[in-house]
């Protein structure tokens, strides 16, 4: 009888451990930064970013892949060897696609060659950016359906390799379908594993209002996405935040507060994590903020 109870107790403890571990994994929030191919191939600067990122708790690098190179391959190995997740960012249609480009499978196939190379070099996820029409199109719900066709094509390619697919969308799509550029988050959820809304306060009009309200801008955008799914997200949501506002110069203290506000908003909205965007890959303000949070 004692042995029976001991066995039951061990089973219970084992199940509890599995449950706790699964919960911790589920609740893990991604913290990532965007890296250009130029920064990746600058070995000295990449090593600096790796060192600071690891100390600050950054676990993901979203890295452009525009043209495969020997240096790229070598330096991606530095990233993955340091236990940082490599997400490959592939720009589909720079400045948005024309109807001829978007309806041409040969264009999709050409970009897929980059995807395949990234996976071969250790990419754990693929992120498609500029997967949209240009802004000159007539508004139509057919536009988003055309974009979904491309997304589904990539999803089918990646599913067999067990590689999740992420898609970047404009912040405006957080509030519903954007019929001009053909972005519809609810529609896209059929064929993506994660959505990455670019909720940059600098991109919302009126600009002065959103510059002064970074927290509200990010929070309202992310909650609006969740509202599209009745607060039951079927996919992951990684928000893109910005480290500066190109419309308005800010002192360093104000810049720090601007970044902190966006991070708080992402957490409050219950997103699955964030990616920080700095076009020139200057992340010292972000690193210092995260270092300070860890020290508390």
Question: Can you tell me about this structure?
Answer:
- With 296 residues, this protein is α/β, with parallel strands linked by helices.
- It has a single domain, classed as Glycosidases (TIM Barrel, Alpha-Beta Barrel), CATH 3.20.20.80.
- It contains 12 helices and 8 strands.
- Strands 1-2-3-4-5-6-7-8 form an 8-stranded parallel beta barrel, surrounded by 4 helices.
- It is globular.
- The termini are far apart.
- Residues 1-26 have low confidence and may be disordered.
CATH superfamily grouping? Glycosidases
The main pleated sheet reads as:
8 strands, parallel, barrel
Query: Which fold name fills CATH's third level, the topology?
Result: TIM Barrel
Shape: globular
CATH class: Alpha Beta
Task: Estimate what percentage of residues fall within beta strands.
Answer: 15-25%
Count of folded domains: 1
- Report how far apart the termini are: 49 Å
Fraction of helical residues = 40-55%
Count of helical stretches: 12
Order of helices and strands: HEHHEHEHHEHEHEHHEHEH
